[in-house]
Amino acid sequence: MSLMGQMMQMPLMISSLLTHAARHNGDIEIVSKRVEGDMHRTTWAEVESRSRKLAQALARLGLQTGDRVGTLAWNGYRHLEIYYGVSGSGLVCHTINPRLFPQQVAWIVNDAQDKVIFVDLNIFPLVEKLAPMLPTVKHVVLMCGRESMPRETALTNLHCYEDLLAAEDGQYSWPTFDENAAASICYTSGTTGNPKGAVYSHRSTVLHAMAAALPDAMCLKATDVVLPVVPMFHVNAWGIPYAAALVGCKLVMPGHHLDGASLYNLFEEEKVTMSAGVPTIWLGLLNHVKANNLKFSTFKTTIIGGSACPPAMIRTFENDYNVEVIHAWGMTELSPIGTLGRLKSKHADLPTEAKQKILEKQGKSVFGIDMRIVDGDGHVLPWDGKAAGDLEVRGHWVVNGYFNVDKSPLHDGWFPTGDVATIDADGYMQITDRSKDVIKSGGEWISSIDLENVLMAHPAVHEAAAIACFHPKWDERPLMVVVKKPGAEVSKEELIAFYDGKIPKWQTPDDVVFVDEIPHTATGKISKLQLRERFKDHKLPTA
Ligand code: AMP
Description:
Bound molecules: adenosine monophosphate
Strand content: 15-25%
Number of helices: 16
Low-confidence stretches: none
Radius of gyration: 24 Å
């Protein structure tokens, strides 16, 4: 018989992250720019005690273990209290992206069967409009004080957040239960078909938070000041609300104030050291600092992911502003962290340019995530940095199913990500495309990300997207859709010539069209679906 370990069995509970933060870093601040417009300051200790009151209030509203609680809210302290008050008391926190189409929001609420919805003031009109379509929702809680409550509303079941808390005494102990119980649900963006719910457990969330904080991951420390630009409704702000409690660092919550100027001021006023977000948001911030000739005084590191970070953006941050960029890859189904771009010790003496080249890739997997690439027949491909295949993953915080869906998404025990990637001998993974975005020219694949990265380094280009366009001979050829920088002038021919020597000649885009704006999805990714639809009848000059 094997000898058993003699260690305590303590289930991994989300509430333990918060109680740890309150006890050991109780005075550390959570600063929020509120929807109301003002700044609000609280601490981990205060968040913990208010989360307990919230747990009591939810029980008083009649919620029972496992019930889903929806949120339609920006990054802020009340949203943080909801994360912990809901999951910590055995309920399931369901964050919803308010930028989705209203019908999609209704579909998601109904699929999750949310019993309560917490909503920020400026999103309330959406909930008022949708309420008749949400039969499971018994209570709506407006995240504000009494003074901001609407005088008139058709809703009969509307509550005031601060009133709910004020009615409780906080005499509440966080319960301990099965660590595999559901803690939160996030829906995938559903660019094709209906969104699907990824159900995270307490165990997966705590393990993910531990991995996220590691030095070769986000490298979070108690002395950091972290500003998650990534919204709390986009895969739980990449786990930052949990990892921040774990290390006990200061959090700066930007609310819905995500324009370059607002972000810059917040970075400076609150002495932010670290941030995280999708590339689009950083375009806005970089434009603002450049146009106003500004520098960052404390900002040191940013995690960029959600879509491919253009190498030009990494260089601008590092060379012009001395901000280290960590390129990260992940997805809703991975809670979301999968890989991060960090160097190995053997790279220490490389010149800057060579280091940056390595860091352009999406990076190495963190402990807890195993990955492989397979070809169309499911054969495992080599890690040689050349073979591109379907990326599959498995690990402690990877889904093994979707909410309300019987069919398993797994392939041979692995989760197929839908991304196409290479992995090199050192384990650095590089995404070449979303499998449905890859451009198939005469049987060969062209990476839309590679094409976009070239133009993103052109001084006149604000944003560029590559899509497949019909070609009578090659089936598909690349078309570039480009937004110029304000006031910049550049011709189609100049941009095509800009590819010379940067990619194989045959991959050079056949055409460029200029547009005022590139459409983005609700999570800030370029909407290739909309672009393909818009340019489906585009005639290439080479056709
Ligand atoms: P979501 O579930 O909305 O977070 O989307 C996940 C998808 O975003 C992935 O499957 C990738 O296609 C894409 N993605 C995320 N991070 C990156 C990255 N660093 N580079 C390229 N694509 C990315």
